[in-house]
């Protein structure tokens, strides 16, 4: 079970790193970057949806931010 948990943690870390890379590439190079076409738009949409959810959205956002470290 510990191996599975470690693998999931590593995959999650990799995915978060790819999202950050996609956002940075989108900001620097614009929206026409191959393989990361609209990551920035998707992140903005997610933040907007969480903001519309009120307190529950704030709690989920806090939880997600705590798992990024």
Provide the fold topology.
Blueprint (H helix, E strand, L loop, with lengths): L1 H28 L9 H14 L2 H12 L3
Keywords: Membrane, Transmembrane, Transmembrane helix
Short overview:
The chain is mainly α and 69 residues long.
Keywords:
transmembrane; 69 residues; transmembrane helix; membrane
Radius of gyration equals 14 Å
Q: Per DSSP, what share of the residues sits in E-state strands of 2 or more residues?
A: under 5%
Helix content: over 70%
SSE string, helices as H and strands as E: HHH
Please summarize the sheet with the most strands: none
List the total number of helices.
3
* SS-based class: mainly alpha
Average residue-wise pLDDT = 76
Regions with little confidence, pLDDT below 50 for 5+ residues: none
Transmembrane segments: 7-31, 43-65
Keywords: Membrane, Transmembrane, Transmembrane helix
Textual characterization of the structure:
It is a single chain. This protein has 69 residues and is mostly helical. It is built from 3 helices and no strands. The longest helix is centred in the N-terminal third of the chain and has 28 residues, at 2-29. The chain is flat and about 40 Å long.
């Amino acid at each position: 079970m510990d191996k599975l948990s470690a693998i999931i943690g590593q995959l999650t870390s990799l995915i978060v790193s790819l999202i950050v890379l996609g956002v940075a590439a989108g900001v620097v190079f614009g929206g026409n970057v191959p393989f990361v076409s609209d990551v920035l738009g998707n992140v903005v949409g997610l933040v907007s949806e969480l903001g519309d959810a009120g307190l529950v959205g704030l709690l989920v956002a806090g939880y997600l931010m705590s798992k990024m470290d």
